[in-house]
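Changelog excerpt

This revision adds worked examples to the README so contributors can see how folded entries look when concatenated. The first example is reproduced verbatim below.
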Amino acid sequence: MIRNVFVLALVVFAGFFAGLYLAYHTMEPCRALAVEQARRSVMPTAVAHLWTRAEAGRSDRLGCTRRLIGSWQDRLSS
């Protein structure tokens, strides 16, 4: 039973990071957040990517992960 829960958690984490890599070509949540924000920005993507990357670089990984998941939730709800 415990082994099954551990394997399930491992599969979920592996799926999360595989999805990050496939969608954003990076495994780092802050860089993925910068790409996500640049894609959703009204500015041109290249300009917005530089701005959001500098902004996300000052955040910790957990904060970036939370903001990235929040962005995904906003995208799914709209």
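The second example, added in the same revision:
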Amino acid sequence: MPVIPETMLATLGGAQRAAVCDADPARAAEAMLNVVEGIPPFSSRVAERSQWLAAARSSLSLLDVVPNGLDVRLLAEIARTAFAAHEITPALTATEQALAQAEELDDLALCCLLRARRLPWLCTGNLGTGNLDDARAERATLNAILLRLPFEQRSPALRADICVAEAAYHAQFHAWDEVRQALAGLGRAGLVRDERLHWYACTSQLTLAQVNLRTGQRAPAIRCLIEAARIAHELEAWAELANIQTVIAAYAVRTGSFETAISHGGSALAAMESATLAHAQMNPWLGLPIDIATESEFAGVIRSIAESVVQSLDLHDRHAFLVSVCALVALYLVADRAPEALDALNEAIEAAQDMGDASAEALLRSVSESLLRFMGMLS
């Protein structure tokens, strides 16, 4: 049997500790997978999940015949861990392998779970190409399988993952009533009050923030973002926190609250410095092309946000464009580079003029005037 480091065992209760150390490799591996499934898929927990997955794989390698279901459960959690790390291609590959095995076993519940977890990332993967066909096909297949799955076989975790997938899917089409219905279903899923609940709570807050941001409900949106930031901070989910704080800072800029913007922008940079992600990826639930968590220095952050401004224009996403521009202003102010913030605003005003978007132009001019007053250059 593989030796499990004490640092890993120390996080477990007595019964779990005994189970993962069982002399039977199959029982030990099953217990390890139970541990992994209970770890919320935040980026900050990727290393922990990976350690237990490696231990489970080592235990299974001792068996001549792996009991039905254990190897596919391993693949399912490898996929979810890769998604949490923004390793999208390996995650999709592991999902496809797990689906093939789940279909052979006729495990409808696991087929649904795998497809529900993949759906949000298919949406973001197609964003900007004008092609959401893969996401549509995935959702249609998921719904077809659900029709065959008796309700009593739908675990709370499965129902919850289906709800967050539905919310992410409908958000791509700005179907906000359907998004709200999906989130209401999440509240009725009956989730066990364990660590996983934090991930679902953070995800739902980000989704509500997106709904409110894009429907002009600024105050409720900021409350949702602040709650999501609180959860991320408590879980030390630094990558998620970096991007949440960036968006909060952007909205502070939009309202002329520059001291607040500097505070949240500074928090975003501090979180970025603690993040360990290597690959940028749009958050499926926040719905904005912003990810500074992979950067290691200020210049990279500025480049990343500038790219999100350009991407927003390419997507014809007016809302994302304004948030990205204001985020750029906030981060320049954190570095005490206000003149460059003004330059960014002037370029954005020209872009708004080119788009023929008079209201966006007016908003950005208002921000520019407020910034000049903040700098003492305009009375």
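Reviewer comment on example two: Residues 27 and 115 are 27 Å apart (CA to CA). The chain is about 70% helix and 0% strand.
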